Amino acid sequence: MRIIKLFTLCILLLSCSNDQGQRNPYLQEIGFRFEVNLNLPLYSPLTNPGNAVYIGAQGVGVRGVFVMNTGFAYRAFEASCPNHSPSSCSTTQLEGQTAVCACEGFEYSLFTGQQLSVPQDGNRYFNMLEYRAVQSGNIITISN
Hints:
Residues 1-21 form the signal peptide. By secondary structure, the protein is mainly beta. The protein contains one helix and ten strands, in the order αββββββββββ. Helix content is 10%, strand content 29%. A hairpin with a 2-residue loop joins strand 9 and strand 10.
């Protein structure tokens, strides 16, 4: 019986992982809250699945936020390119369902936030920073 307990303890200790992922060193995570009213013409594209809008209001994210209607839920991502420090060219541009960084041309899916066509140069690349997006009626609350 003692051997079984010892074996179980060893398995539990060895199966624990300290890998919590690496935090993006380029983007600070700031606290904010912003409400998107889908009744307003500015945000009406979000009523259709597959559409995204850029919100560049002061205090919303580092360089603004992209909000995407995936068809199942709303997702919100930081508009600053996640693969270098914020600079004059680091605000990604909305191109359909993709965000494109003007600095290097990196492209990111607004459905998932993942970088498309990751360079195979051995460097660490980050996906877009995602914010919380909660819908209540015609209001989407974006927050961090």
